[in-house]
Every structure is written in structure tokens, then in C-alpha cells.
């Protein structure tokens, strides 16, 4: 499954979601471990104020669909972006570690553990 996270050039988590200059799409296995990693210069920071919020969200939605993203990991997303992701049924998971790759794994393993615990109940 593909998971997106905003990243900085040094591999740390970018705190801005909709204004991230760069994002990574991680391929994650069923155990929540990253098996592949690609970064993309999206320039959402520059593009954010070019046009309406709706147009900017559409740009992000297009990216998520083009890359078959099923979940996002971030430290923050605005309410409008949260609504957009919810409408797409793309969960927004918390980025809790400073390094992006480790944060994706932690978020996915935590989400998987929560789901597994629910299934066993």
C-alpha cells in the first residue's frame, strides 16, 4: 500500500501538509514496514496561493490518486484538507517521530495494531 508523508530534503518530517515543498510516497507492506520510498518535489508551498483553496486541494487529490495513496502521515493538516481526505476515505495518521521513514512505519504499525486488536475482539 502507498502512504504519503511531507518531507524535508534531510529526510525529516515536513510539518506542513498542504504547503509542503516535497513529499514522499512510501510503499508499505502488510506488517507496516517501508519496502520502497520515492520523493517528489510538489512545490505546494509555492502553488498554495495560486488560485483558490478548492483548486489547491484538487491538485493534492490528483497527486494522491495518481500515486494510489491509501493513507497520509503528517504532523498537521488544516481543517479543509482534513475534510478532503475524509471524503476520499484516506486516513490521516499522526507523524510522531522526527525522521519521515520511521514516522511512516510507526504510524502504520500503530494503525495495524489497532485494527488487529479490533479484529481479535
UniProtKB/TrEMBL annotation:
Dinitrogenase iron-molybdenum cofactor biosynthesis domain sequence ranges: 10-94
InterPro entries (alphabetical): Di-Nase_FeMo-co_biosynth, DiNase_FeMo-co_biosyn_sf
Domain of life: Bacteria
Pfam families xrefs: Nitro_FeMo-Co
Protein name: Dinitrogenase iron-molybdenum cofactor biosynthesis domain-containing protein
Protein source organism: Cutibacterium acnes subsp. acnes
Lineage, broadest ranks: Bacteria, Bacillati, Actinomycetota, Actinomycetes, Propionibacteriales
Amino acid at each position: 500500500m502507498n502512504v504519503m508523508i511531507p518531507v524535508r530534503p534531510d529526510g525529516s518530517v515536513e510539518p506542513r501538509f498542504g504547503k509542503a515543498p516535497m513529499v514522499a510516497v512510501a510503499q508499505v507492506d502488510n506488517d507496516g514496514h517501508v519496502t520502497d520510498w520515492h520523493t517528489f518535489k510538489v512545490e505546494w508551498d509555492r502553488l498554495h496561493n495560486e488560485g483558490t483553496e478548492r483548486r489547491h486541494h484538487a491538485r493534492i487529490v490528483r497527486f494522491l490518486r495518481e500515486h494510489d495513496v491509501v493513507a497520509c502521515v503528517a504532523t498537521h493538516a488544516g481543517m479543509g484538507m482534513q475534510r478532503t481526505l475524509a471524503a476520499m476515505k484516506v486516513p490521516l495518521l499522526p507523524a510522531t517521530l522526527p525522521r519521515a521513514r520511521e514516522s511512516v512505519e510507526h504510524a502504520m504499525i500503530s494503525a495495524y495494531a489497532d485494527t488487529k486488536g479490533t479484529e481479535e475482539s
